Amino acid sequence: DAGVTQSPTHLIKTRGQHVTLRCSPISGHKSVSWYQQVLGQGPQFIFQYYEKEERGRGNFPDRFSARQFPNYSSELNVNALLLGDSALYLCASSLEDRFYGYTFGSGTRLTVV
Amino acid sequence: AQSVTQPDIHITVSEGASLELRCNYSYGATPYLFWYVQSPGQGLQLLLKYFSGDTLVQGIKGFEAEFKRSQSSFNLRKPSVHWSDAAEYFCAVGATTGTASKLTFGTGTRLQVTL
What we know:
Number of helices of chain B: 0
Helix content of chain B: under 10%
Order of helices and strands of chain B: EEEEEEEEEEEE
Largest interface: A-B, 26 and 27 residues
Distance between the termini of chain A: 36 Å
Oligomer: heterodimer
Shape of chain B: globular
Largest sheet of chain B: 6 strands, mixed
Radius of gyration of chain B: 14 Å
Largest sheet of chain A: 7 strands, mixed
Radius of gyration of chain A: 13 Å
Shape of chain A: globular
Strand content of chain B: over 45%
Distance between the termini of chain B: 41 Å
Number of helices of chain A: 0
Strand content of chain A: over 45%
């Protein structure tokens, strides 16, 4: 079975640009959560979506947005990129709207220059 | 709000030696606790989790962890470390606030294994 798929794996953007990161959950999983992992830190919660509805948002500015599609895949969008947005962005999927059965993807490494 | 402290940023052990990684948490109710491992450039793999019941939890790859409520700790142990265990280890506490269900992670402990 395919795991959680994230794309792209790496990308480089310039300050002020916009970026879209994508996540395909495990088949049958209805919840997708996004985490940001800055180098040397633990992951930090950004968003949780369940059944296409936003269930929660972490302490991130409005430049960060996300959505979940009818097939349960998800996009994370970041506008007006800052150097501090450089990080590994992780997607986790689960069957239900709880963290019990998280499966993480390998992440997207975003570098802002 | 919940929080997790991993006091050791970096630990070096010899292959075959025992290992203990420390984790302290802060959470008002009964915690849901996790240990994850991350290899360079990779995502997170779940080693084990504690929800309730037996305070000694067995996980994959020969790891175990013990929940001690009185010390607010959930330390990870392995009797004999293998070179392939070198990685970053994260302790996390799960909580539901309103409709949001999320994990709060510690800053991680980097394990180096010498041969």
